[in-house]
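quick one, 142 residues, struct below
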Amino acid sequence: MKMYKTELKHSPYSINSYAPLGYDATWVLALALDKTMKQMKEMNASVDSFSYKDAAFAQELSKTLLHINTNGITGVIKFNKNQERLNKIWIEQFQEDGEIRLGYFDPEKHNLSKGELTMIPGKGLYGQMVNLRGTRTLLMNH
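---
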């Protein structure tokens, strides 16, 4: 990520905050396709016989994605049984100087409903309204 930002400082292009996610998504798909093709070969099938209506290939690809566990430029990449990425969710707040990163929620280690939130030192959050998935929530220090 540092290298990405450094390169863009000397470029006419601006930083796109979604570019690292796209990069990681491409690598995850490449890893999953590689592993799926190996599994399909064992079943006497190949990528050459692939079609968009190939349910067996789609099922194998989905199963393979569930077992992806790799480091990307956006952090550790792995998925839960619902095929949702298990990654830290940054809690940000719009303040006078723009978006301020306050802390994060780690879905593997914490339960936000119990108030377990990792805070960045020196940043205030408790007692303030925050927007979590479209709902206004008041976080209180316990």
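The longest helix spans residues 19-42.
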